[in-house]
Amino acid sequence: MSQSSSRTAVIRDHAKQRDGIAETLLVELLHDLFQIDVRNLVINHDQYSLNSLNGFFEVGDAPYFFKFHQEENEEEMSGEYYRADILARAGLPVDQPAMMSTLPGEQILVYKRRTNPRFSDVLRTIDDRHDDDEAKRAVDAERKLNEEVLAVYLKTLHPVTTDQVVKEPINRLFYDRLVTGPAETYPGGRLASFYVGKEFSFPGVTLSWEEFSKARFVVNGMEYRNTIAELFDLAHERVDPARLADAGGVTAHGDAHNANVWYERDGTDATLSFFDPAFAGEHIPTLLAEVKATFHNILAHPYWLYEPAVLQEKASASARYENGTLFADFDWRLSPVRQSLLQAKAETMWKPLLAALKQRGLLPADWRQVIRLGLFLCPTLVMNLRAGAATHNPTSSLIGFSVAVMTGSDPIKGEDAITHFLASIDPES
C-alpha cells in the first residue's frame, strides 16, 4: 500500500485544508473499522497535533475521543503499531482505548471521552499566568509519574539484540526521519524535505542551506562546538537502531509528550496517566525512552515550538552572519515551571535510571552524546522549523534552531542549562 492510498494520510491532508471533507471521511472510516454510526464528529485543531489528528464524536448518547498518527510511509513500517496493552501489562498508568485499529494506514484509537484536561493544557496556563500553588501541584504530579515510570523501567530493563531494537516503532520518531526508503538513503526523509537545499530566514539575515548547515552557532554570546550539519551526521551514525542496543531496552511509552498525558485533580493533589501509545514497545533503547518527554514537555516551552505566533509577540530576537558564524541573540527563556520540571526529570528519572544502567554494565561511555543527539532530533524533525515553511516565523525559527544546537552540542567554553542538566544526572557525580 502506498502513502497516497492511506486513508489516514488523505484525512490528515484534508484536515489541514479545513475543507470539511476530513470529517466525512473520518465518519466513514470509523464506521468501516468499528461498525458504529458516528454523530457530531469534530476535529480538534490544536497546536500539539504536529503528526497526528484528534477530536470528538458521539455514538448514540455516548461521547468519545479519537486520535491517530500518520507518519511517512507508515504502511511499510516494521513492527506492530499501537500496542496499547503493552504499557498496561507492565504496570504503567495508561488509559485503555474503547476501540482500536492497527491496520496499516488506518491506525486509530478511540477512548471514552474524559472531562479532565491534558497535562499540556495545564502547563500552558501556568506558563502564561504563573501560580505557585498550581505549579507545585503540577511538578509534584510529574515527580510521582516519573517514579511510577522509573519503577517499570528498572523492572523491565534487559539486554536487547540489534534485531529487537530495529523493530521498535520509536525509530520512526528519530532515525527514520533522517533517511529515505528501504535503502536508508542519507540525507533523506524529513531532513531532506525540510532543509536540504532550502533557504533560512532569521531576523536580520537569510542563509542558504550550505551556509546555514555549516555555520558555527554563537547563542547569546556562547559558542557551540558542532554545526547543524555535524549534528545531523552524528545522529545518523549514532542513533541508527543498529547501534542502540548497547544500553539495553525497557518497556516504555516512547512518545510521552504532555498532549498524551491526562491530568486529574484529586483534592489538593493531581495524578497523571498516559494515552496514545502509538510508539510503545518492550525493547525500546533505554537512552531514548525519556528523550521525547524531556524535550517536548520542557525545552520546547514556552511557546516557541508549538505557538510561534505567540512567541513572536512575546520575545525579541536578532541574528547576524559573519565569516561562517551565525550569531543568535534573544530574550526567550524557560519559564519557572519548566525549569522545575527539568529538575524533577533529572532527579526522579534520569539520574537513577543512568545509575541503574551503570550498575548493570549497560551504560555506554558516550551516553551524554546519545541523549544530546536524541534531544537535537526532537524539534528539528518533528516539524519544519524554517520560517515560512509551515507555522514558523523568523523569530521562532532562530530560537528553535538555537535551542536544538544547545541541546545537541557542547559549548566550546563555559556551561549552559543543558551542560548543568547532564552534570546533574551523571551517575558518577
Q: Which consecutive residue ranges, at least 5 long each, have pLDDT under 50?
A: none
Radius of gyration: 21 Å
| Distance N to C terminus | 51 Å
| SS elements, strand count | 15
Nearest-integer average pLDDT: 94
Query: How many helical elements?
Result: 15
Strand order of the largest sheet: 1-2-3-5-4
Percent of sequence in beta strands: 15-25%
Q: The biggest beta sheet, please?
A: 5 strands, antiparallel
**Fraction of residues in H or I helices:** 40-55%
How does this model look, in words?
This protein is an alpha+beta fold and 429 residues long. Helix content is 41%, strand content 18%. It has helices at residues 7-17, 21-34, 84-90, 119-128, 132-156, 162-166, 189-194, 209-213, 228-238, 291-299, 308-314, 336-359, 367-382, 394-408, 417-425, and strands spanning 39-44, 52-59, 62-69, 99-101, 108-112, 199-202, 205-208, 216-219, 222-223, 249-252, 261-266, 269-274, 281-285, 317-322, 325-330. The protein has a 5-stranded antiparallel sheet with strand order 1-2-3-5-4, with helices on one face. It has a 4-stranded mixed sheet with strand order 9-8-15-14, covered by helices on one side. The chain has a two-stranded antiparallel ribbon with strand order 6-7. The chain is globular. It starts with 6 loop residues before the first helix and ends with a helix. The mean pLDDT is 94.
